[in-house]
Design brief:
The protein has 377 residues and is mostly beta strands. Helix content is 3%, strand content 32%.
């Protein structure tokens, strides 16, 4: 079934709008959702209806499943999740061509999936491509969000971000007094290709887990393929909250840049890192010339991988050799990434559902494993 809305009438703000915040449950399945001045699909909240209501009692649409849908050519974001919209699952969907209406010209902000403080989101097995800005982000204190097994390609800005920039009014300062942009997020087994800004980015994230992703041609214009920054929440004319990234585990990922790319392959902005973060067992490669690394808290000079390991005290087991992947990010038979990852208990399968063994491979693909699942891409 096709549900279509215009993109040039602001009163037609969404193609499908869950406008009652107390709604719980239900499924959207096998729908083609097109248009909407702002959003293809929006889940509503009562977060800002009455500021005297305690945060814990505010509600948003919850536990809705969006499965096997195609969402495209939206005015701005394809899917918008607002604060307290809990447990939204977006499964095996294709999402593309955002930012196609006049609303995007007024405010160029047209994500594939835009989550502002909506906890327990799951995005799995989706193909998200040709996005005006960022493929998926979870920000504003979004907690326990999982982005797994997706293909994200051709984004004007970022691929997957845990955190970004959010206004103070959308945070739950009772459970999140430090204005962490993301808490306990998981980014696992994704293939990310061709992003203008960071392939994977963390902004003021706490306890982020970034495992077994493959990023090809991230940061073609700005930032870095892997980018860590502080949050920046304006609180008054004299005070802002700038949480750093804490407790991040960034393991078993591949980052590949094309010849001639000028951005670092990994960059940690000033005060954005922490000794509690772990980066290791990753593969970093740029065709033609070696990739460079930056930690602005240590030096403004470009670092080689060996200098990065020494000065940043990180990535001790990470590789600088060509990961040798095909056009779809799958490992070739002579890849140095085969059997070079560290085993992580919660990671049992690769992007296509193939079983990983006790000597797993770096990246989203486990070489030589054939699954019973149809690949996303």
């Amino acid at each position: 079934a096709v549900i279509r809305a215009v993109t040039n009438v602001e009163d037609v703000s969404s193609c499908i709008w869950y406008n009652e915040p107390e709604t719980v449950g239900g499924t959207l399945e096998r729908l083609e959702i097109i248009g909407g001045y702002y959003y293809g699909l929006k889940f509503e909240t009562n977060w800002d209806w009455d500021n005297s209501v305690p945060f814990a009692k505010r509600r948003g649409v919850s536990n809705v499943i969006v499965r096997n849908c195609i969402i495209h050519d939206t005015g701005r974001d394809a899917i918008k999740l607002t604060p307290a919209c809990k447990g939204i699952q977006i499964l095996q969907c294709e999402i593309y061509n955002t930012g196609k209406g006049p609303g995007a010209l007024l405010d160029f902000n047209a994500e594939g999936i835009d989550n502002v403080n909506a906890p327990d989101m799951l995005v799995k097995g989706c193909y998200i491509h040709d996005i005006a800005t960022t493929g998926v982000y979870a920000k504003g204190g979004a907690r326990n969000c999982r982005v797994e097994g997706n293909v994200i390609a051709n984004c004007g800005e970022g691929g997957i971000y845990l955190g970004f920039y959010t206004d103070a009014e959308w945070f739950d300062t009772q459970s999140n007094p430090d204005y962490q942009e993301s808490l306990d997020g998981l980014v696992l087994n994704n293939l990310i290709m061709n992003t203008g800004h960071a392939g994977i980015g963390l902004w003021g994230a706490k306890n982020a887990q970034i495992y077994h992703n493959t990023v090809i041609n991230g940061a073609k214009a700005e930032m870095a393929s892997l980018f860590l920054n502080t949050g920046d929440v304006w609180l008054s004319d004299t005070r802002s909250a700038r949480p750093r990234n804490q407790g991040a585990k960034i393991l078993n990922n591949i980052f590949i840049q094309a010849s001639g790319q000028n951005q670092p392959i990994c960059r940690i902005r000033e005060h954005a890192g922490s000794k509690s973060n772990t980066l290791d067992y990753n593969a970093y490669f740029r065709s033609g010339t070696p990739p460079v690394f930056l930690n602005d808290s240590i030096t403004w000079e470009d670092l080689s991988l060996s200098q990065w390991k020494t000065q940043n005290a990180t990535d001790a087991h990470s590789l600088g050799a060509d990961p040798k992947v095909d056009a779809n990010g799958r490992l070739l038979g002579d890849s140095p990434c085969i059997n070079s990852a560290t085993a992580i208990a919660l990671v049992t399968h690769d992007r296509e559902g193939g079983l990983r063994d006790n000597r797993p491979d770096i990246g989203a693909d486990e070489f030589g494993v054939v699954s019973g699942l149809s690949p996303v891409f």
